[in-house]
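Annex B. Sample input.
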Amino acid sequence: MKIKFHLPDFYGNIRMNLLFADEIKRRPEYFYDNIEIGSSYGCFPPALWNGGRTVIGAVRRQQIEDTIKEYNSRGIPVRYTFTNPLITEKDLADPFCNMITRVAENGLNEIIVNKPCLEEYIREKYSKYPLISSTVKQIEDLGELKAELEKDYKLVVLDYNWNHDYKVLEELPHKDKIELLVNPYCAPHCKRRKAHYEYLGKQQIMHNAQVFGNESQMMKPVERGEFSCQYQSYDFYRTTKLGNHISNKSIYEKYVPMGYSNFKIEGRMMHPVDVLESYIYYLVKPEYRDEQRVKYLKKLLTPKGK
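Annex B, continued. Sample output.
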């Protein structure tokens, strides 16, 4: 059974993600057995439909096409995070989001969905996409979770509060279509999580409006301080102390033997060093980690083309 890791930020982390993808194929002896890059998730800024994190900036169509080509030529799907919880019917006609969706619709690339209106729109208009059910839904009811697993999704990203409920994990059906988030940067059972997703969605809508000069989408600014959270970790090794963290060892000793094979590494908008360290931790065998870390740092710190 192939063990698939899903890597963060296909646009911002493109050099790092492709470097690891190439090295896994070229030097598999340095990595855990039977692993591969299952996808890279994220979104092109300033996409209105994006959720989970706020992506800042703007990209041209040529950059979009080139990025998709780099991943797809290696057999790696680009996975759009179309999970903004504030999306409404009026947002479905957004030109930029429809453009990036058309460009990537080839049957390989994927979309993570949250809002029913956007999911229905994509199923009708862009039917080639495999759809992923988002962890943003925060499904913590077992009956609701089992019902979600029966729906027409390629994968369901499990709410991280299930990560160590081994009784439930053992009995869940369709383990092959469940994806586990292994290194959440937020503490378990955070009461502000839903509001935080909405805050990020609002920030994305505001940024999109600023880029495209759309005054009708402008909202009252939200201060970052409203979500400065003492329980949120911005350091990879701090996440290893959280109660919802899944260790590298337990992936191979507990979860894979149970039948799980899809694991999501969080890291969108995080510091590149923390992202690199998470890849070293989850993908590289312990005896090669120091050597590989130095190797990747040298490559990533060398300007492109040199």
